[in-house]
Specification:
The chain has about 90 residues and is mainly α. It folds into 2 domains: about 1-35, no CATH class; about 40-89. It is about 75% helix and about 0% strand. The longest helix has 18 residues, at about 40-55. The radius of gyration is 17 Å and the shape is elongated.
């Protein structure tokens, strides 16, 4: 969705969505998304959502907080940093 918001890249990506893609079209869609900067933005957004989720656990029983906090953190801990993604993208 982030890549689709770009006026130029979104116009290139939009026609590729919503249908099966040939190999070349799939590569084209990947290149558009990778070049858009959307992946690092999505990773950072996921990290913020996970932190917000952990903050929302205040007041719940401690065992539940520990388990859900661990789950939220584990979902995003292995994601690459935005700077690493910038090098790749």
């Amino acid at each position: 969705l982030i890549a689709l918001d770009d006026p130029v890249l979104g116009a290139d990506l939009r026609p590729l969505l919503g249908r099966p893609l040939a190999s070349g079209e799939r590569d084209q869609a990947r290149a558009i998304v990778a070049g858009s900067g959307a992946i690092p933005q999505a990773v950072e957004l996921a990290r913020r959502y996970a932190a917000d989720a952990v903050s929302a656990l205040d007041g719940l029983p401690e065992a539940l907080v520990e388990g859900l906090s661990s789950l939220a953190q584990s979902l995003v801990e292995d994601l690459p940093t935005a700077s690493a993604l910038d090098i790749v993208g």
